Amino acid sequence: MSGTLLLGSGWHPFLFRSEITALFGDFKTLHPRLVLLNQPIDEKLLSRLSSAALVEDLLHFGGYSNNTSFEFLSQTISDWSKENLPPGSFAVRSKKLGSGVKGISRRDLEKEVGAQLYCEKNPVDLQNPQYEIMIIVAGKVDGEVHWDSVDSNPCITWGIRENKWVKSNYVGRQPMERPFFKPISLEPRLAKLLISLAHREGVNPKAMIDPFCGTGGIAIEALIQGMDVYASDLDPTMVYGTKKNLSWADEHNSSITQVEKCSVKDIAGLWSKKENCIFAFDPPYGRNAWKSDDGLELFLAALAQALEIDSQSTISTMLPAGAESLENDPEVDYIVMGRPWSEIESEINAKGWSVVVRSPVKVHKSLARMVVVCHPLH
Ligand SMILES: C[S@@+](CC[C@H](N)C(=O)[O-])C[C@H]1O[C@@H](n2cnc3c(N)ncnc32)[C@H](O)[C@@H]1O
Fold first, then answer.
1. 67 φ, ψ to 5°?
2. What is the pLDDT of residue 320?
3. Mutation choice for ligand 1 from 182, 208, 212, CB with most ligand atoms inside 8 A
4. CATH of 175-376, one of 3.30.1050.10, 3.40.50.150, 3.40.50.10610, 3.20.20.105
5. Ligand 1, closest atom to CA 281?
6. Could you tell me which of 29, 8, 99, 11 has the C-alpha nearest to residue 326?
7. Tell me: the pLDDT tens digits for 96-155?
8. Quick one: which atom of ligand 1 is closest to the CA of 242?
9. What was the pLDDT predicted at 1?
């Protein structure tokens, strides 16, 4: 067996794939939510993958096919499994993505493959098997919230599930469960996503800097991942709140955590030079504040300061945008932070950064955020 199959969240397949690019570089796309890495599952891969926010399942890759004949599939999957299933109990499970594939009954596939494999060396155990053969039947995804450029053509793929890997869970650390809460608090999945998008292939960031830390939503996720955290905010109440939330979240106490009151315009003086840093933040937006240039001015100040602190760093952020940006039409210059995106991008370039990812995320009916990831231009 070689290769690793990743199943991404249906919430935002494009950002799932962007996250995998940031963490691992190249991959093959089988379906918007299914990607294949050309490397086996090992401790290094598992540790890197623990930074991912949008990965739902992980398989030792078996194969894939666009042939939708039931006989062909059940035979091919059974043949592969006979060769690759180690001795021990097993179950065959399946999952449907989108509308599934016409004419393929998942239950029948499970039963047929199970029946062909069942033997003394491999007894069936549906409750607590040592191995799970996973068959993913992926079809058209219609009416998704987040537009995607990749077509969801029918694809059937299979493999053995990696049982050492545990999907992200945020139980106990939702914003309202933390000691210090304000409505601005970023939910942990988005915070984790901003951090993963700021990764670069082959590099483990040592530190995360958030110059608009608010209640510390991003800082908490960075700390949990073992990064040093440098957080600041202009509002002393937020500085107090982030400190409180970080000491609550800090189980191991092995990372550096510093939280200071500081304007974004002065963070280069506050933190001085650092190496191997990422910047992750959501800049301030009031009901109307982001329509003026103030929000933009602060964002641009963050870009300039970040480059002074670490000229090799990356920036991952979310900027306020109108809900129409969710249509993501490449021909339309959507309004982001009150200005056409093309102008914002020029300003980003003028500060020495290039945009490597840009994708809208739905917040609620009338509001979206533009997720933007920047690398230094040089
Ligand atoms: C959208 S909130 C960040 C929320 C945060 N991510 C969280 O999870 O709570 C933006 C923050 O920027 C801070 N802020 C506003 N103007 C600032 C400035 N000039 N310099 C630094 N922070 C500023 C606000 O006090 C607010 O806490």
1. -75, 125
2. 93
3. 212
4. 3.40.50.150
5. 6
6. 11
7. 998 888 889 999 999 999 999 999 999 999 999 999 999 999 998 876 778 888 888 889
8. 9
9. 53
Position 250: which residue type?
D
Q: Evaluate the CA torsion angle 110, 97, 316, 190 in order and state its sign.
A: negative
d(CA 285, CA 139): 39
User: Ligand 1: which residue has its CA nearest to atom 27?
Assistant: 214
Q: Which amino acid is at 115?
A: A
Condensed to tens digits (0 to 9), the pLDDT of residues 285-295 reads 754 444 555 88
Residue ranges, CATH 3.40.50.150, the chain:
175-376
Distance in angstroms (rounded) separating the CA atoms of residues 183 and 67: 49
Q: Where in the chain is the domain with CATH 3.30.2130.30?
A: 4-161
Q: Which residues are CB-contacts of 200 (< 8 A; sequence separation ≥ 6)?
A: 22, 314, 375
Give the residue, by CA position, lying nearest to ligand 1 atom 5: 214
For ligand 1, the distance from its centroid to the CA atom of residue 284, given in whole angstroms, is 5
Looking at the DSSP bridge assignments, the partners of residue 124 are 90
**Mean pLDDT, range 327-333, rounded to an integer:** 90
Q: Does the pLDDT at position 312 exceed 70?
A: yes
Tell me the pLDDT band of 249, cut-offs 50, 70 and 90. Answer: very high
Return d(Cα 284, Cα 45) in angstroms, integer.
Answer: 35
What is the topology classification, in CATH, of domain 4-161?
VC0802-like (3.30.2130)
From 182, 220, 234, 294, give the residue whose CB has the most ligand 1 atoms within 8 Å, as the site to mutate.
234
Please give the average per-residue pLDDT across 175-200, as a whole number. Answer: 96
